[in-house]
From TrEMBL:
It comes from the Bacteria. This is Uncharacterized protein.
Amino acid sequence: MEAEDVRISRKKPVYPVAPALQKYLRTYQRDARMPISYKNLLDFYETVPVIDKNGKDTLWETPLYPPHIQENLYNGLKIIYAQLKASGNTRIVEHKYIDRVEYCAFGNTHPFRIRIVNRLNDVYDYFYVKQADASRIYGLELEQIISPNPVNYMVDGQTLVEEHIVGIPGDVFAKSLMYNTDYNPKRIAKEFVKFNERCIITLLGDMRAYNFVMQITPDFDDFQFRIRAIDFDQQFYEGNPKVYMPQFFKDNLPYVRLCMEHLTDRTVLQYQQEERSSIVHRVRSERHRIAALRDVSNTEELSTSANVKQLREGYAHYYQNHHYLKCRTMTDIIELNVKNVIRQVKL
């Protein structure tokens, strides 16, 4: 493993949700009729920067709305939360209120982060409202099908709502918690190897440390670790193969060093094989869904022809497999990745 400063070529365009994808979302119950849309949340007249407890700019902003607009928006957001969490049962939000709405002009989909609080006990939760980006939705679906991590989201036209994924930001974990003496560094390194392998296979790009979280679960004799992606903006768009390999990002150097210090080539290969085997089991159990997703995504243009050409040549070299040169789309590359994993597991 190694790390370098991998750069994203340019800002990825937002791809609209086409009718074929909308039909797929209805089939798998990801669609919803929401009382307000992403565009409604853009009706603010100014914003105020959100500063963290250390006085640093978070790159998030608090939008300010006229009182009559804010009341309508906040009521709609409570209903959306009920749809996301309880199939629309509004009784779960009777004692909840929208504490704040925050806006990020930095990300590709310019998300809104919503904090909702239970007034009975002050327990709070977050969810996100974003522009619906087709490639991002494909990333969420691949995460649901191929990774061990369930995702919860809804789409209404060009509005995407996502559940908050709980965990310690990867960069924060690397700076302050990675070398906790209660944690087994080999387990952390093992999880990074598996995460790296999933990203390579599903073409999930730009997994720098601040784009994933670490989930820590105490077990009866140790701690278990799970790395979860929280940003799917760079799903199968870039042409550089290293964009889909977290090991090459400079931000992930602490994780790479941990792997180099505690794992051998043999154990890295073992963990890669374990992850491939798990992927095969999940693909087999969801074979109809992944086939439907493949058929839909192959009808759309979700990257540039130059990027597809660069990536298929890069993967052909990486895997020493000339069959990649026949791939016409990013979907073809993912399908070949999965087929190769199935063949390897059978050997």
